[in-house]
Amino acid sequence: MSGALLSARRGVLGAFNVMDLQPHCWFHPGSLAGFSDGVAVALWPDSSGKGRPAGQATSTRQPILKTNIQNGLSIVRGDGVDDLLLTGAFTLNQPFMILAAMRWRSLSAVHQYAVDGLGHKAVIFQKASSTDVAIYGGVTLNGPTAATDAWRVYAATFNGASSDIAVDDGTPIVGNAGALAAGGLALFAAGTGTANAAAVDIGEVVACPIPGADLLVRAKRYLSRWKTP
Predict the structure, then answer these.
(1) Which among 107, 74, 108 is positioned nearest to 5, based on CA atoms?
(2) What CATH code is carried by the domain that includes residue 39?
(3) Which domain holds residue 8?
(4) Inter-residue contact 200 to 112 (CB < 8 Å)
(5) Using one digit for the tens of pLDDT, what is the confidence trace for 160-217?
(6) DSSP state of 11
(7) In the beta sheet, which residues pair with residue 177?
(8) Within the chain, where are the H helices?
(9) Peptide bond into 95 cis (omega under 30)
(10) Each residue of 170-179: pLDDT tens digit?
(11) DSSP string covering 87-128, please?
(12) Based on the structure, what is the number of domains in the chain?
């Protein structure tokens, strides 16, 4: 493995380090190095240093690790039926941002929650039967369209009436997403259970304080290594 690729998998690329974001929690596949393709992920370690892993004790509800899927990188795949990883509860009050590199693999007749707080509180979702993306923190803020089966970088700011959602380097759509505290993080479905399970591949997710403009640009550049060319 090249030094550049190894550094990227550890969250460092050029002058950027994910830890510069002061993450509340951070999930990336480098923390699962050494596991084989197709293994069920019972626990996705938190690389923020804060000890907030996302886990699932029920084996039939564990997403799977897929290696060398996107630009040589591994990903974690939710089945869109009942897969769900949950952190423990922790304080995650607004304002904060969630950055995610991921792709929805197919449309669904229900909203597909890729990321949630602990129960419909900080949601990034693909809308039912649509390629439109939205966020929810008590109020739905409709965002841009993002093609299904394409890797994209999502930046969701949860900040009451000043919330916003952007895809890749597109202009953020600003509006009111509500002011709920997340209380923790859920991946692949609603944080209340199996509802709104997402057929989604997740490469990386970072929850963090809202970064300055320059740091956000560098964070997106780092996450863009996941993007579909």
Answers:
(1) 74
(2) 2.60.120.200
(3) 3-226
(4) yes
(5) 999 999 999 999 999 999 999 999 999 999 988 788 999 999 999 999 999 999 999 9
(6) T
(7) none
(8) 3-9, 213-223
(9) yes
(10) 999 999 999 9
(11) PPP---PSSEEEEEEEEE-S--SS-EEEEE-SSSSSEEEEPT
(12) 1
